[in-house]
Amino acid sequence: MKENLSKEKKYVTDWTESNKVGFYRLSDAIWSYAELGMEEYQSSKAITEYLKRNAFKVETGVADLPTAFVATFGLGKPVIGFSCEYDALPGLSQEKAVNQKRPIIEGAPGHGCGHNLLGVAAIMAAVALKNAVIDFDLQGTIRIFGTPSEELCIGKSYMARAGLFNGIDAVIDWHPGSFNGADYGTCNAYFNIRYHFKGRTAHGNSPWYGRSALDAAILMGHMIEHLREHTTPGDPPYAANTINYSFPDVGPAFPVVVPDRSTLWCVGRIVSSEEMDYVISRIYKCAEAAAMATETRVEIEIVSATHERIPNKAICQVLYNNLQAIGAPKFTEDESNFVKKMQKDFGAPETGLDTSIMPFSGGSSGVSDNAEYSWFAPFGALDIACTPDGVGGHNWQVAACAGSTIGKKALDVAAKVLATSGIDLLMHPEIIDEAKKELNERLRGRVYKSFIPETAKPPLLINRGIMDKYRSLQEKYYQQL
Question: How far apart are CA 337 and CA 349, in angstroms?
């Protein structure tokens, strides 16, 4: 770390350094809980109890989401938001700090996106900033958004619809990755919709008495394939327009019975909200036509939908400057070799862990529901290296690193950069003024409108079946706080 930090910034970095062991325990506990989206009861409880002990006013169960929360400290403007995620991924159970695939429980969830680090670094930074507000008599409000099920883009879309992001002045965020940087990038809008077809069963030797829901779902899928030709390609690779679907539920699942139920689950990543609205309307026509042709009926369940991210160079510049001041994580030779073996086994270049900082630039990134923040306030995010380059994400390799000393070093750097950036935003209101001007210029008069109908309820049980299967098996491996 460079020594040219202001006394306020040195205060928050010293505080995070002095208190990091407690946050390591919290991160390890959340890593061991490995709870899927909408099921993060242990993880959310551990975080909110810590925040309550540290003088934050915490409201839980917001936006009809049992594992969501909003935590607030301070009064007045500016209101600085921190984003907290804590959901895991299915099937990625992995022993901690082991560089070959070795599940703790075969088939169980694991933190293959590092959200055990993401959420903890956010609250670490927010609590450090809270103490600086007290000790230096700073003006402003710190607000932490606990957002469940980022992996299905559920939490923030329903929280945005509920108006919970109104009134914030800036949001700063981060994500574990394979490089270090703070690009002012966009991401595509996203929809996640399930089409449930209802038909009539019949014996397979007289199928004319039935109305096949599976026929309807297959016809709809075939129409989506033809629809691809009539949608723009976007801007590959990250900003490409893509539509994916699957058939997760068909039944009765017996070949001599005409199925009376079938679901087509459709996910799309579209370059703009306006184009996504058009694509959704075309897909809806595919569903209607399939139901009409097969004399079935279709029910539509909107799981989630998010907007494209509005980039903000001004806020990201603050994060980038503080990343340069703090410096990228420094890894030992053993930690680098740990990752090099993963890369070798995968067939990727054996580069180890990145300790450089990428040049400041714009661009595009993968879809995240943190894009919802960017329509309400200037938004910026960091990437901090702690995963192997060249092996992708959402895998056991990330889960292994997220539970190791490698992940903890990224947690330290992220918390310090977020906290020092919070100091800049509280003490220099002109930065926020510039960032808001940029946001308005980029929005060009567009205003936020939720894609989720007011009557739609959050899909609270979307991962219940998987967690019911594994939670009791995972409990004996829980880390104690």
Answer: 13
Q: Residues of 393-428 as b/e, b for ≥16 C-beta within 10 angstroms? A: bebbbbbbbbbbbbbbbbbbbbbbbbbbbbbbbbbe
DSSP E strands in 64-217: the ranges are 69-75, 79-84, 140-146, 170-177, 184-186, 189-198
Q: What does pLDDT average to in each consecutive run of 10 residues of the chain (481 residues)?
A: 82 98 98 98 98 98 98 97 98 94 98 98 98 98 98 98 98 98 95 98 97 98 95 84 96 96 97 96 98 98 97 98 98 97 97 97 91 98 97 97 98 98 98 98 96 95 97 96 90
Query: What's the pTM value of the predicted model, to 2 decimals?
Result: 0.96
Q: Which amino acid does the sequence have at 460?
A: L
Cα of 282 vs its chain's centroid, Å: 27
Angle between helices 429-443 and 313-326 (to 10 degrees): 140
Q: Which amino acid is at 316?
A: C
Q: Are strands 170-177 and 379-385 parallel, antiparallel or unpaired?
A: parallel
Yes or no: say if 318 and 285 are a contact pair by the CB < 8 Å rule.
no
CB 305 within 8 A of CB 464: no
Which H or E run contains 474?
helix 464-474
Question: What residues contact residue 233 under an 8 Å CB cut-off, 6+ apart?
Answer: 240, 241
CA distance 431 to 36: 37
Q: Please, what are the domains in the chain?
A: 7-187+309-450+460-477 (3.40.630.10), 189-306 (3.30.70.360)
- How far, in Å, CA of 149 to CA of 306, rounded? 13
In the block, which residue shows the tokens 């068909």? Answer: 250
Residues whose CB is less than 8 angstroms from the CB of residue 276 and which lie 6 or more positions away in sequence, other chains included: 189, 190, 191, 268, 270, 305, 451
Q: What is the CA radius of gyration of the chain?
A: 23
Would you say the C-alpha torsion 356, 359, 363, 368 has a positive or negative sign? positive
What is the pLDDT at residue 366?
87
Structure tokens at 328: 């990228």
pLDDT for res 365: 87
Q: What is the per-residue pLDDT for 236?
A: 82
Q: How far apart are CA 366 and CA 407, in angstroms?
A: 21
Q: Cα(414)–Cα(149) distance, rounded to whole angstroms?
A: 21
Alpha-carbon span 453 to 447, nearest angstrom:
16
